[in-house]
Amino acid sequence: MCGRREARINFLRLHWFDVGIGPAVLMAGYVLTASLNTFSVLLWANLIALFLHQFEEYRFPGYFPGMMNKVMFNSPHPDRYPLNSNTALVINVSVGWLAFLIAALMGESALWLGIATMLVSIGNVIAHTFLFNIRGGTRYNPGMLTAIALFAPIVISFGCVVVAGNLATPIDWAMGLVLGVVLNYIGILKLIDWLKDENTPYVFPKRFLVPDQPN
User: Fold this and answer.
1) What is the tens place of the pLDDT at every residue in 54-78?
2) Domain range holding 36?
3) Residue 63 in 3-state DSSP?
4) Quick one: CA dihedral 20, 185, 66, 71, positive or negative?
5) Which residues, including other chains, have CB under 8 Å from residue 153's CB and lie 6 or more apart?
6) How many of the other CB atoms lie within 10 Å of CB of 199?
7) Residue whose C-alpha is closest to residue 200's, from 11, 13, 34, 49
8) Which of 33, 84, 93, 152 has the greatest CB tally within 10 Å of its CB?
9) Radius of gyration of the chain (CA)
């Protein structure tokens, strides 16, 4: 039993982003057929965008892990340090999927959580559009297309709906902003730091690394 469980976890470490496409399709069907208000549609769309964003980062073209380690941390071991495949699973599924899903399910009853997840999306837009490209001297990095084409318009639309409808209280804004910073900093950056291990067995295969440049 333990061996089978470990085998399933090992599979998820390298395929959780593939698995996420299934829920993305189902949720898209739900959004298109259910009677939802604009606020709820945007929260579900944000979760769907997250699944697609992660697919771009880790599957097609998929070399985000290697780029992250090489460009942001100048790592001598970009296949495992500081970001490794186990850390990626923990951050994206245990933190990202869970927070975005709860925000979509709770809707206006937890508006502060919706604000927080939108801040995570804003963080992705800024990081992929500017930070990674400036640090790496590139024009594109895995995750940039979905950040610009999906996260950016969703966040702008969400802000317009909330402000125009006067939906958020000062407490919602305060809690949302604080939690958003926590999710971006502790839920991503600090988790990478806390779980880093140069001798980790959770190594990214070569396809997750930055492709060799032609001479």
Assistant:
1) 999 999 999 999 999 999 999 999 9
2) 2-203
3) coil
4) positive
5) none
6) 7
7) 13
8) 84
9) 18
d(CA 142, CA 136): 12
Return phi, psi of residue 84, to 5°: -125, 175
pLDDT digits (tens, 9 = 90+) for 178-210: 999 999 999 999 999 999 999 999 999 999 999
Structural domain includes residue 208: no
Q: What is the pLDDT of residues 28-40, one digit of tens each?
A: 999 999 999 999 9
Tens-place pLDDT, residues 85-138: 999 999 999 999 999 999 999 999 999 999 999 999 999 999 999 999 999 999
| Cα gap 29→200, rounded to integer Å | 39
Domain membership of residue 214 (yes or no) is no
The vertex-146 CA angle with 145 and 150, nearest 5°, equals 125
Report yes or no on 57 lying in a domain.
yes
Number of domains in the chain: 1
For residue 39, tell me if it sits in a domain. Answer: yes
How many other C-beta atoms are found inside a 10 Å radius of the C-beta of residue 201?
10
Tokens in use for 164?
């125009």
